[in-house]
Amino acid sequence: MQILPFYLLCDESGSMTGDPIEAINSALPELHHEISTNPTVADKTRFCLIGFSDDAKVLQPLVDLSDIEEVPALAAGGLTSYGAAFRELLRCVEADVASLKAQGHEVYRPVAFFLSDGIPTDDGWEQDHKDLLGSKYAPKIIAFGIGDAEASTIGQVANFRAFMQQDSTVSPAKALREFASSLTRSIVRSASSIPADGGSGFTLAVDETVPGFSTVSLDKL
Protein backbone atom coordinates (compact mmCIF):
# COMPACT_ATOMS: atom_id res chain seq x y z
CA MET A 1 0.00 0.00 0.00
CA GLN A 2 1.11 3.57 -0.71
CA ILE A 3 1.18 5.68 2.46
CA LEU A 4 1.38 9.46 2.88
CA PRO A 5 2.76 10.34 6.36
CA PHE A 6 1.76 13.80 7.52
CA TYR A 7 2.92 15.70 10.57
CA LEU A 8 1.30 18.64 12.33
CA LEU A 9 3.79 20.71 14.34
CA CYS A 10 2.14 23.23 16.68
CA ASP A 11 3.82 25.98 18.66
CA GLU A 12 3.04 25.52 22.36
CA SER A 13 4.89 28.61 23.60
CA GLY A 14 3.47 30.72 26.39
CA SER A 15 2.03 33.23 23.92
CA MET A 16 -0.22 30.48 22.52
CA THR A 17 -2.86 30.97 25.19
CA GLY A 18 -6.51 31.91 25.13
CA ASP A 19 -8.16 31.88 21.71
CA PRO A 20 -5.25 30.40 19.69
CA ILE A 21 -4.69 27.31 21.81
CA GLU A 22 -8.42 26.77 22.29
CA ALA A 23 -9.07 27.13 18.56
CA ILE A 24 -6.43 24.59 17.58
CA ASN A 25 -7.56 22.16 20.27
CA SER A 26 -11.15 22.40 19.08
CA ALA A 27 -10.07 21.96 15.46
CA LEU A 28 -8.05 18.78 16.04
CA PRO A 29 -11.02 16.44 16.70
CA GLU A 30 -12.75 17.98 13.68
CA LEU A 31 -9.70 17.25 11.55
CA HIS A 32 -9.56 13.72 12.91
CA HIS A 33 -13.24 13.08 12.17
CA GLU A 34 -13.13 14.53 8.65
CA ILE A 35 -10.21 12.39 7.51
CA SER A 36 -10.83 9.20 9.45
CA THR A 37 -14.37 8.92 8.07
CA ASN A 38 -13.17 9.31 4.48
CA PRO A 39 -12.19 5.75 3.43
CA THR A 40 -10.22 6.87 0.38
CA VAL A 41 -8.01 8.95 2.64
CA ALA A 42 -7.87 7.10 5.94
CA ASP A 43 -6.23 4.00 4.51
CA LYS A 44 -3.57 6.00 2.66
CA THR A 45 -2.45 8.40 5.37
CA ARG A 46 -0.76 8.29 8.76
CA PHE A 47 -0.94 11.21 11.19
CA CYS A 48 1.50 12.48 13.84
CA LEU A 49 1.03 15.48 16.15
CA ILE A 50 4.09 17.23 17.61
CA GLY A 51 3.93 20.09 20.10
CA PHE A 52 6.94 22.34 20.63
CA SER A 53 8.06 25.18 22.86
CA ASP A 54 11.33 24.97 24.87
CA ASP A 55 11.45 21.34 23.81
CA ALA A 56 9.35 19.21 21.48
CA LYS A 57 7.32 16.13 22.16
CA VAL A 58 5.20 13.71 20.20
CA LEU A 59 1.63 14.08 21.41
CA GLN A 60 0.29 11.54 18.92
CA PRO A 61 2.68 9.00 17.33
CA LEU A 62 2.24 8.31 13.62
CA VAL A 63 -0.91 6.24 13.29
CA ASP A 64 -3.92 5.58 11.10
CA LEU A 65 -6.45 8.28 12.01
CA SER A 66 -9.22 5.71 12.35
CA ASP A 67 -7.26 4.20 15.26
CA ILE A 68 -7.28 7.43 17.27
CA GLU A 69 -10.08 7.65 19.80
CA GLU A 70 -9.19 11.11 21.09
CA VAL A 71 -6.69 13.58 19.63
CA PRO A 72 -4.38 14.97 22.36
CA ALA A 73 -4.73 18.65 23.25
CA LEU A 74 -1.92 21.20 23.21
CA ALA A 75 -0.78 22.80 26.45
CA ALA A 76 0.73 26.29 26.27
CA GLY A 77 3.97 27.04 28.12
CA GLY A 78 7.61 27.96 27.65
CA LEU A 79 9.39 29.89 24.92
CA THR A 80 9.44 29.19 21.18
CA SER A 81 12.22 26.84 20.08
CA TYR A 82 12.17 25.99 16.38
CA GLY A 83 15.29 23.85 16.66
CA ALA A 84 13.57 21.45 19.04
CA ALA A 85 10.68 21.09 16.56
CA PHE A 86 12.95 20.31 13.62
CA ARG A 87 15.09 17.84 15.57
CA GLU A 88 12.01 15.96 16.78
CA LEU A 89 10.46 15.95 13.32
CA LEU A 90 13.66 14.55 11.79
CA ARG A 91 13.81 11.80 14.42
CA CYS A 92 10.17 10.90 13.82
CA VAL A 93 10.34 10.91 10.03
CA GLU A 94 13.39 8.66 9.92
CA ALA A 95 11.90 6.18 12.38
CA ASP A 96 8.40 6.27 10.89
CA VAL A 97 9.47 5.77 7.28
CA ALA A 98 11.72 2.89 8.28
CA SER A 99 8.82 1.29 10.18
CA LEU A 100 6.37 1.70 7.28
CA LYS A 101 8.85 0.24 4.81
CA ALA A 102 9.49 -2.70 7.14
CA GLN A 103 5.75 -3.37 7.05
CA GLY A 104 5.92 -3.60 3.26
CA HIS A 105 4.43 -0.18 2.45
CA GLU A 106 5.57 2.24 -0.22
CA VAL A 107 6.02 5.65 1.38
CA TYR A 108 5.47 9.00 -0.30
CA ARG A 109 7.55 11.99 0.73
CA PRO A 110 6.24 13.09 4.15
CA VAL A 111 4.33 16.36 4.51
CA ALA A 112 4.71 18.63 7.53
CA PHE A 113 2.32 21.45 8.47
CA PHE A 114 4.12 23.92 10.75
CA LEU A 115 2.21 26.46 12.86
CA SER A 116 3.80 29.19 14.98
CA ASP A 117 2.58 32.38 16.61
CA GLY A 118 5.95 33.81 17.66
CA ILE A 119 9.61 34.44 16.93
CA PRO A 120 12.08 31.62 17.67
CA THR A 121 14.19 32.36 20.74
CA ASP A 122 16.78 29.62 20.23
CA ASP A 123 20.08 30.32 18.51
CA GLY A 124 21.14 27.85 15.86
CA TRP A 125 17.69 26.62 14.78
CA GLU A 126 18.70 27.28 11.17
CA GLN A 127 21.22 24.42 11.35
CA ASP A 128 18.56 22.04 12.67
CA HIS A 129 16.36 23.19 9.80
CA LYS A 130 19.13 22.49 7.27
CA ASP A 131 19.73 19.06 8.80
CA LEU A 132 16.03 18.27 8.39
CA LEU A 133 15.85 19.42 4.76
CA GLY A 134 19.11 17.65 3.94
CA SER A 135 17.93 14.32 5.28
CA LYS A 136 17.02 11.33 3.10
CA TYR A 137 13.29 11.67 3.78
CA ALA A 138 13.09 15.47 4.01
CA PRO A 139 9.40 16.45 4.29
CA LYS A 140 7.58 19.06 2.27
CA ILE A 141 6.88 21.84 4.76
CA ILE A 142 3.85 24.13 4.64
CA ALA A 143 4.24 26.85 7.28
CA PHE A 144 1.60 29.10 8.83
CA GLY A 145 2.33 32.15 10.96
CA ILE A 146 -0.12 33.94 13.23
CA GLY A 147 0.14 36.64 15.87
CA ASP A 148 3.73 37.82 16.40
CA ALA A 149 5.33 35.42 13.91
CA GLU A 150 7.48 37.11 11.27
CA ALA A 151 6.72 36.55 7.60
CA SER A 152 10.42 36.31 6.74
CA THR A 153 10.92 33.51 9.27
CA ILE A 154 7.81 31.63 8.20
CA GLY A 155 9.02 31.89 4.60
CA GLN A 156 12.40 30.53 5.65
CA VAL A 157 10.87 27.54 7.43
CA ALA A 158 8.66 26.47 4.51
CA ASN A 159 10.03 24.69 1.47
CA PHE A 160 6.68 24.22 -0.29
CA ARG A 161 4.23 26.94 0.74
CA ALA A 162 3.98 29.63 3.44
CA PHE A 163 1.14 31.76 4.81
CA MET A 164 0.75 34.58 7.35
CA GLN A 165 -2.31 35.77 9.21
CA GLN A 166 -3.40 38.65 7.03
CA ASP A 167 -5.31 40.95 9.33
CA SER A 168 -4.26 41.50 12.94
CA THR A 169 -7.80 42.61 13.74
CA VAL A 170 -9.07 39.14 12.88
CA SER A 171 -9.04 36.96 15.98
CA PRO A 172 -6.44 34.18 16.17
CA ALA A 173 -9.34 31.78 16.71
CA LYS A 174 -10.85 32.67 13.32
CA ALA A 175 -7.43 32.54 11.61
CA LEU A 176 -6.71 29.13 13.08
CA ARG A 177 -10.10 27.78 12.08
CA GLU A 178 -9.29 28.83 8.52
CA PHE A 179 -5.93 27.08 8.86
CA ALA A 180 -7.60 23.89 10.07
CA SER A 181 -10.09 24.00 7.23
CA SER A 182 -7.31 24.43 4.67
CA LEU A 183 -5.29 21.66 6.29
CA THR A 184 -8.22 19.24 6.07
CA ARG A 185 -8.84 20.03 2.41
CA SER A 186 -5.15 19.64 1.62
CA ILE A 187 -4.82 16.23 3.24
CA VAL A 188 -8.07 14.88 1.79
CA ARG A 189 -7.27 16.03 -1.73
CA SER A 190 -3.63 14.95 -1.57
CA ALA A 191 -4.35 11.47 -0.25
CA SER A 192 -7.19 11.02 -2.72
CA SER A 193 -4.72 11.59 -5.56
CA ILE A 194 -2.55 8.61 -4.57
CA PRO A 195 -3.14 6.06 -7.37
CA ALA A 196 -5.03 2.97 -6.29
CA ASP A 197 -3.12 0.85 -8.79
CA GLY A 198 0.27 1.59 -7.28
CA GLY A 199 1.22 4.22 -9.82
CA SER A 200 3.48 7.15 -9.04
CA GLY A 201 1.19 10.03 -9.99
CA PHE A 202 0.77 11.44 -6.48
CA THR A 203 0.17 15.20 -6.32
CA LEU A 204 0.46 17.30 -3.17
CA ALA A 205 -2.70 19.40 -3.27
CA VAL A 206 -2.38 22.49 -1.08
CA ASP A 207 -4.46 25.61 -1.56
CA GLU A 208 -2.47 28.53 -2.95
CA THR A 209 -4.67 30.89 -0.96
CA VAL A 210 -6.18 30.44 2.49
CA PRO A 211 -8.98 32.75 3.71
CA GLY A 212 -7.64 35.00 6.46
CA PHE A 213 -4.02 34.48 5.40
CA SER A 214 -1.67 36.04 2.87
CA THR A 215 0.86 34.08 0.83
CA VAL A 216 4.50 34.50 1.85
CA SER A 217 7.45 34.24 -0.52
CA LEU A 218 9.77 31.37 0.35
CA ASP A 219 13.30 32.25 1.46
CA LYS A 220 15.59 30.47 -0.99
CA LEU A 221 18.73 30.84 1.14
Automatic annotation (TrEMBL):
Listed SMART domains: VWA (SM00327)
Q: Where is the VWFA domain?
A: 5-183
Per the database entry, which stretches of residues form a coiled coil? none
Report the InterPro entries cross-referenced here.
VWF_A (IPR002035), vWFA_dom_sf (IPR036465)
Name recorded for this polypeptide: VWA domain-containing protein
Originating organism: Streptomyces aureus
